[in-house]
Fold this protein.
Amino acid sequence: MDMQFIKTLGSAAIAAAIMILPTSSLASGDRPAMLAPLGPPPSPVDNPTTPEKVELGKMLFFDGRLSGNGAMSCATCHLPDEGWDFPDKISLGYPGTVHWRNSQTIINSAYYKKLFWAGSSKSLEGQARSAARGGVAGNGEDDMMEAKLAFVPEYRKRFRDVFGDIWPNVRNAYRAIAAFERTLVQTDTPFDNYMRGDDSALTNAQKSGLQLFTGKAGCAVCHNGALLSNEKYYNLGVPAYDGWNDDALAQITFRFELYAKGVTEDKYRKLKDDPGLYFRTKQVADYGKFRVPSLRYTKYTAPFMHNGMLASLSDVVDFYDRGGGENDFAETKTNLLKPLGLNEAEKADLIAFLESLSGERIVMDQPDLPSSEPLPAPNN
Ligand code: HEC
Ligand code: HEC
């Protein structure tokens, strides 16, 4: 039976149709065209991935020398054991600050065309630079970080071998980190194996969840393709971060970001919630919109949404079942969300399907980091 035909049926009719299908025909049924297995990561021509570059990038990812105080490495907020993000609603921030958004996983970030919750960075190379320098993240200064790398004999050697640098160039540090991140991908989840033809890769509950995902629950309208993201921006009505009501440091960071991103005085005083995409476009129509995230690896990345306001996948499914939420930006909320009327069994199937988008945890120990040494005193 043709999937298109199945899609046009109600769920009761699907159940009935499935009962009369011989198992083999169900098992080898077409895969939904709006979803796809994940292919190999890109290796851009201007920064091709090589094993030596990846090895260097891995060290730098874990090395606090790429920050202001020498201690805030990328891995501080992208903890390998915590889904390669930070387990709080809002990420840890540079000492003396908190962050103002939920930390995102690095796994599969190689595939996005725009990075960050509101898509403010175009490449992993550019993203790494803004992370190392950002006031609430690494708070580093390029010249100082470069000097710190220059005092590490092993880095001098590795930058020379990989990039031909006489002295380590900090831009190449960001290139190496990006190359490392392009290896942090997961292309063999149960979902991928199913999409490539292995019918036994998904449980029956997960297969029903997949039907809901592309059908009744409407998730694939936005979460589609191999990444399970159309990379567009929507306001779902995710409620404002609750810490902004009563946490002075969180309020200070939020004000600082408004100011740093150049909103008008009037908006600086009035905005009480993260305007998201508005920061980039300065169009009121973009208030509260965020990039559709990939749903891969979410088994390990709770809490969810740009401000971590939903604690679990079960909370996320309940949120969509209610038709999304309410925030300060009611006028820009997407009309693609409507109450879904899912029953408990359907919710459980949908969650089971979401879990099939993650394989095993990707674990990694911090590599041994090379030590700094003073340069030889000049001869006179
Ligand atoms: C102080 C915590 C912190 C540090 C340090 C930090 N990050 Fe992040 N990272 C975050 C947060 C929070 C976000 C989401 C921020 C946003 O969207 O505005 C993020 C987002 C990202 C993303 C975007 C993922 C996506 O799905 O778009 C990448 C990639 C990333 N970080 C890599 C790095 C790298 C590389 C470093 C080191 C150079 C680093 N981060 C250092 C907290 C941190
Ligand atoms: C209108 C487009 C749209 C539809 C339809 C949609 N989503 Fe989303 N989804 C988004 C956006 C945008 C975000 C991020 C919103 C934010 O942070 O404010 C998101 C976030 C999520 C997250 C959190 C991921 C993370 O890393 O924090 C999960 C899980 C999720 N969606 C699952 C689903 C499921 C399941 C459905 C169907 C019931 C669904 N989505 C339907 C656009 C959509």
